[in-house]
Write a structure and sequence with these properties.
mainly beta, single chain, five-stranded antiparallel sheet, 5 strands
Length: 62
């Protein structure tokens, strides 16, 4: 996923939410995405953990 791409994010106890990628930071353990959501227009960080399905919070928007 890349900057300006629309994605969905998994949040606690609710349906997936649509947002836009503002920044991407790669790490050995996975990737951090700064996502602008309606409630958080300046962005909130989500982490996709490499190799762990339960640790994937950001997915491309269909």
């Amino acid at each position: 996923m890349k900057v300006n791409q629309q994605v969905t994010v998994k949040t606690d106890g609710g349906p997936r939410r649509v947002g836009t990628v503002l920044a991407v930071e790669e790490f050995n353990e996975g990737t951090m995405y700064l996502i602008a959501l309606e409630d958080y227009p300046l962005g909130i960080w989500f982490f996709n953990e490499t190799g762990h399905e339960d640790g994937v919070f950001v997915q491309p928007h269909p």
